[in-house]
TrEMBL record:
It is an enzyme of class 2 (transferase). Its EC number is 2.7.13.3. It comes from Paraburkholderia caballeronis. GO terms for molecular function: ATP binding; phosphorelay response regulator activity; phosphorelay sensor kinase activity; protein kinase activator activity. It is found in: Cell inner membrane. GO terms for biological process: osmosensory signaling via phosphorelay pathway; regulation of DNA-templated transcription. This is Sensor protein FixL. SUPFAM superfamilies: ATPase domain of HSP90 chaperone/DNA topoisomerase II/histidine kinase, Homodimeric domain of signal transducing histidine kinase, PYP-like sensor domain (PAS domain). The keyword Lipid metabolism does not apply. It is a multi-pass membrane protein. Putative oxygen sensor; modulates the activity of FixJ, a transcriptional activator of nitrogen fixation fixK gene. FixL probably acts as a kinase that phosphorylates FixJ. Residues 84-135, 213-263 form the PAC domain. Residues 281-492 form the Histidine kinase domain. SMART domains: HATPase_c (SM00387), HisKA (SM00388), PAC (SM00086), PAS (SM00091).
């Protein structure tokens, strides 16, 4: 058949040298020639294909329909793609289907025989790429449509091309009402005119003002109300077109929170000012008459000692004691109010020196021994505040010792980037249910007539320790004593006492 149809080797050479799969079919739809790429594409040898109907290369589900299409083509043969507007699929010998594009070209031999040359191109890679693009677009569309921020895309003239559902909710317009309109419709004056001018300057000069930067602007809703918003704009190039995507976030709540924060800061500042004035009044207007009462009570108890009976002398003792307690309470309140408000210079504080001064100042009674376990580190902070911490803890330990031989022990251990200090005593101890209460202002566990206390000391300790980012707690067994712990940050470059004396 081949020798009958073809004269010379021209067509044979063309088929053999072609990179695409090509085959020739006669008017009966049977294959008369197939080149090597056909074998590689379909898995059939040319000998297996010659004389077979063309439909052998198609999935069974479309073979019957293809016969009619082939007959119509031979009735009016002309060069054209096959299956315009349709997705075409071929079938390999092993049954695998794959997408193809087919081009048809009519041929007529010198002896008048009508043939068709079909060029077959496997478009699987392209289909996969298209599917990947569609999948990516679907994912992007899902992200845009579900975004919590409004997203608006415009062209370089400001015409809105697309908006997401959040933009509809935020501005009150439907997508149809916004699409095709100038984006300045979403801006109040004077921003509307400024935006048109900005785009014009950008087209002429390329000057960017907010692209890739972002800023706070004002938006305009359909109902005429305005609201503050964050606007970030990104530019993209689609072919020869420049497009801009704006991401808009309503910051009304943030603005309200900022305004509320500003009001609170002003109120705190005013409260601090009032506290400063109160501290001044307490220091000068209360302590002065208190000192007068104390002096008068001392004078009466001394000069009229022989005039008082036992009950009178006890009353005078209680009076003088309460005057001293009131004075100490005022001093404690003043100290508490100054922590964090009145700043001292931050210095290196050698605790070995500081503890000697604190112990000398407290002058423990003879039956109480105060010991330091080993050399202590150097801290960096306000010296007075650090002194107040140790002075209050050691003073409390001494005050609540009920044993004939009292012991107070100060210790320290390093735990990573902080020091853990402890002040232990063998005093009366504290029941666990009171562990939180003792750090509250004015709280004492023992009647003040038994143990002189203002109830400010531990509260002051906690405030100072927390100011430096530490924490304070207590461990205690009733009757056996208490240990107060607190932490303090390790200062960079500081050495412990052991390291410094090594």
């Amino acid at each position: 058949m081949k020798e009958h149809l073809l004269e010379g080797q021209t067509l044979d050479w063309l088929l053999t040298s072609a990179a695409e799969a090509m085959l020739i079919v006669n008017g009966d739809g049977r294959i008369v020639l197939a080149n090597p790429p056909v074998e590689r594409l379909f898995g059939y040898t040319p000998a297996e294909l010659i004389g077979q109907p063309l439909e052998i290369l198609m999935p069974e589900r479309i073979r019957a329909a293809h016969v009619g299409m082939r007959d119509r083509f031979f009735a009016d043969p002309h060069s054209r793609p096959m299956g315009i507007g349709m997705e075409l699929y071929a079938c390999r010998r092993n049954g695998d289907e794959f997408p193809v594009e087919v081009s048809l070209s009519p041929l007529r031999t010198d002896r008048g025989l009508s043939l068709v040359m079909a060029t077959i191109h496997d478009i699987t890679p392209r289909k996969r790429a298209e599917e990947a693009v569609l999948e990516s677009e679907a994912r992007m569309r899902a992200i845009v449509d579900t975004a919590v921020d409004a997203i608006i895309t415009i062209d370089e003239r400001g015409t809105i091309e697309r908006v997401n559902p959040r933009a509809e909710q935020l501005f009150g317009y439907s997508a149809a009402e916004m699409t095709g309109q100038n984006v300045s419709m979403l801006m109040p004056q004077p921003y509307r005119e400024q935006h048109d001018g900005y785009l014009a300057r950008y087209r002429e000069t390329g000057e960017k003002r907010i692209i890739g930067v972002g800023r706070e602007v004002v938006g305009l809703r359909k109902d005429g109300s305005t609201f503050p918003m964050d606007l970030a704009v990104a530019q993209m190039q689609i072919g020869a077109r420049r497009m801009f995507t704006g991401v808009v976030r309503d910051i009304t709540e943030r603005r309200r929170a900022e305004e509320q924060r500003q009001r609170l800061m002003q109120e705190i500042s005013a409260a601090n000012e009032e506290l400063t004035n109160f501290a001044y009044v307490v220091s000068h207007d209360l302590k002065a008459p208190l000192r007068g009462i104390g002096s008068l009570a001392n004078w009466l108890s001394t000069d009229y000692a022989d005039k008082f009976d036992d009950e009178g002398r006890e009353h005078m003792r209680l009076l003088i004691s309460r005057v001293h307690r009131m004075s100490a309470l005022i001093d404690g309140i003043l100290q508490y109010s100054r922590v964090g408000r009145i700043k001292e210079a931050t210095v290196k504080v050698d605790l070995n020196v500081l503890l000697r001064e604190v112990i000398d100042l407290l002058a423990p009674p003879p039956h109480v021994s105060v010991t330091v376990a080993h050399p202590l580190p150097t801290l960096v902070g306000e010296r007075t505040r650090i002194q107040q911490v140790f002075q209050n803890l050691i003073s409390n330990a001494i005050k609540y010792i009920d044993k004939p031989a009292g012991e107070v022990r100060i210790d320290c251990a390093r735990d990573g980037n902080r020091w853990t200090f402890s002040v232990a005593d063998n005093g009366i101890g504290i029941e666990p249910r009171h562990f939180d209460r003792i750090f509250q202002l004015f709280q004492t566990l023992v009647p003040r007539d038994r143990v002189e206390s203002t109830g400010v000391g531990l509260t002051l300790v906690r405030k100072i320790v927390e100011m430096y980012g530490g924490e304070v707690w207590v461990e205690s067994t009733p009757g056996a004593g208490s240990t107060f712990y607190f932490t303090f940050p390790v200062s960079h470059g500081m050495q412990s006492g052991q390291e410094a004396h090594a």
